UniProtKB/TrEMBL annotation:
The chain crosses the membrane at residues 34-62, 83-100, 120-137, 149-170, 182-202, 302-324, 344-366, 373-392, 404-425. It comes from Sorangium atrum. This is MATE family efflux transporter. The lineage of its organism: Bacteria, Pseudomonadati, Myxococcota, Polyangia, Polyangiales. PANTHER family: MULTIDRUG RESISTANCE PROTEIN YPNP-RELATED. It comes from the Bacteria. Its main location: membrane.
Amino acid sequence: MSFSLPMLIGGFLQTTYSFINAIWVGQFLGTAALAAVTVSFPVIFTIFGVGMGMTLATNILVSQSFGARRFDELRRVVDGSTVLIYGLGLLLTALGELFTPQILRAMDTPADVFAPSVSYLRIYLLSLPFSFGMFALRSMLQGTGDSKTPLYFLLGSVALTTVLDPLLIFGRLGLPELGLNGTAWATLVSQAIALVALNLYLHARRSPIAPSWPRFGQLGPTIRKTLRIGAPAAVQQSVVALGMVVVTGIVNGFGEIATAAFGAASRIDQIAFLPAINMGMAISTLAGQNLGAGHHGRVREIFAWGCLFSGGMTLLISAVAVAFPEALLRVFITDPAVIELGVSYLHTVGACYVFFGLTFVSNGIINGAGATMVTTATTLLSLWVVRAPLAYWLSREMRNVKGVWYAIAASFVVSMITGTAYYASGRWKRALVQKAPPGEAPRQADPAQAFASEVGEA
């Protein structure tokens, strides 16, 4: 809990900004602007999925190397991940800028929100390399057991974005009035400043994960290992996001009111998902460290407490969402038609948040061992065998967007059952990336001395 709490607070900070942004857009710029943000979000999350997947591999490799006290290998992971993740960020930014109109057309974006969606998304995508850099540094720090430092810099970034939002939306203090695009520019500026500041901090502290000029002769094996673990994780994250794109496209077919209701209710999803996602990240790191050190028995305790904490928190949020849906939705939108449809979403999907929370516990253990291919397979099953086809079929059979709500709820249940069953089988232990030699205890080298040696060598 002490390790995951700063991560959870960081997630709430990001969600708080997302809420503030939605309030500015929904209350002051109107339903069409909120719909434009809603349409753009799955595209952004799809691309972010690649970066988050690769940095999950970084977290796994760093945590297992750190747990086993293999500090030479830790430095190679840092070098390889830095080159790989920044390269991906630049490549995906270029592709996103080029294909934004085609992607939004494929999502059946309503005509009245298409132009602002294209403009908003193209500006937002410019922040990708900076966001990917922050993902990488956060994963490395968390892999060494430091979940507090990323929180401090995230707090600064969120605070800066929150201040810049109204200034750029409405053109205050001599800044240009950019409307909806002002929120995208605010994100770009704050991410760039936060990344530069965190890099300077890590170099000032002589941190072993501070990015430096990589030793290119040693990058090949590390990049291949990162890709072997990270590619399935990236696919998993992107598959989740692509599932959102498909589902959003189905919702878009029912008109602007349905799109806005889906967008407003999805903000409540973000709150419910935060404990599960951050608990899953903490579980993955702790499982990786203990497996790397050969302490397999501790993993069972991590799973049990993870179920208690993650399940308990999501169950509480579920109760609030189901009991007070209208009050929650009115924070973002005042249109009665949108609120009515959003209430039906929370009554259906909100009742199943606990299944989502339990899924991330088993997935955290499985990912911590390096078996990312398994969690990718279960995600594919949940989204592409259950959610997307069922959403299309039910919404057409019912002739109502509420069919999508039932499909999302069903996919949560399927994810929980498959993930927990695989964890119970114990087969994930075969995928451990760093295995301690039989009968050999992990080396207890002094971390400070080893880190100093690594920095000097670098």
